[in-house]
Design a protein that fits this description.
With about 290 residues, the protein is α/β, with parallel strands linked by helices. Strands 2-1-3-5-6-4 form a six-stranded mixed beta sheet, with helices on both faces. Helix 5 packs across helix 10. The structure holds nicotinamide-adenine-dinucleotide.
Amino acid sequence: MGKLAITERITGHTELIALIAYPIRHSMSPTMHNEAFKKLGLDYVYVCFEVDTTTLEDTVRGLRAMKVRGWNVSMPNKGPITQYLDHLTPVSQIVGACNTVVNDDGILTGTSTDGIGAMRALNAHGVTYTGKKMTVIGAGGAASSIQVQAALDGVRELTIFNRKDAFYDQAEDLADKLRERTDCKVRLYDLADCDCLRHELDSSDIYIDATPCGMHPLENVVSIPDPSYLHPGLVVMDTVYAPRQTKLLKWAEQSGCVWFNGLDMMLYQGAAAFQLWTGKDMPVDYIRDLLF
Ligand code: NAD
């Protein structure tokens, strides 16, 4: 957008939507949301702010005081921000983190739209997940949000694999909560258990990889040992979208899987937040063509 267009568009009535994270200058979210506001003629502007946990509380107090309609939250603030909000949606309560805040007349509600984004991405690729078996590798922010949404949305069996790092204990807690609160059959295993990994992937309909494997600087790293763990027809979604085809997705293509990257997840998590702030549907096909 040229300078003239910005000064024409931003007036005394324009509402702010923010993204608070650190680092954040690389984000595609401002382009996605600002182009969608422009397309629909909505009087909002979306701006990034470099905020980490040392300035988070003051930032939330300021955004509330300024009656800012809403904001996105990314690392390192996704978990810590929950303590400064008034309400959390069921997904955010279970995950213990949120990526979206809505300000309704000073009442702040946090939610997590990453899982919704992943489920809509599956839908957009013609994949049905209700009643199916899903394996998710990863137990961090993106993985937990996907796991909770999948269990709430009717996935029959969910198998989680993670390496035994700091995220593993969180995954145990999350698995317990999902067993208590949903009908989904949830299992958690160490990623190093290759026999179990092979068995679970063999019997899965969908495999979502929610680790940074495949993304810089892990371009040559894949969470699974080799392509023989994949079977034809398995749906493989990688949450990574840069590069567009990770090493895992190359293996998936060679193995006859249905495969796609995290671009649609990114788009649909943004669309879900956009809807909460504005009450309008993001023109996702237009934005996909524009951005990707
Ligand atoms: P995170 O740091 O919260 O979690 C990282 C997870 O990956 C943990 O479970 C960790 O144990 C695991 N992990 C890390 N290195 C690993 C390795 N070498 N081998 C196996 N497991 C490993 O990160 P996050 O925010 O959940 O992000 C995870 C991925 O999802 C990133 O690649 C991120 O870009 C992507 N993501 C995509 C979207 C989207 O909209 N497409 C949204 C959020 C995150």
